[in-house]
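Narrative summary of target 7.
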Amino acid sequence: MFWKKKKPEIEFIHHNSDELRNAFRYRFKKGRGLTIRFKGKEVAILDISAGGLSFENQGFQPYDVDTIQLTLDIPNFIGNPLFSVGLRILTIDEDHLCRCIFEQCSLEQYELIHKYVLEMQKNDLAH
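Modeled conformation, tokenized:
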């Protein structure tokens, strides 16, 4: 005789996709964000994730692309927090926000951005 093992009961927790997306995105507080130069204009980053960032539209068009410089001030980070990465506008929403993705981004750069987001979230929770 053999016994069938009972399959363990698994409870799936369904997440709202916006909630999951926000878990890995850092929204800067008013006046405390980073700035970059995109297509010759200085823009303030509103939020950032390892996948991309957003900023207010200043006459840009969807699919505009540029190489930007990012400097991420990460607590307890040893290394160079400055790097260049491609940035492409995917969409411009009804609130005139440019939603962008990083292009030509190395794994190390993705990890650095992800660490920055995590550290900024931890810092906000501590204060």
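The first helix runs from residue 17 to 23.
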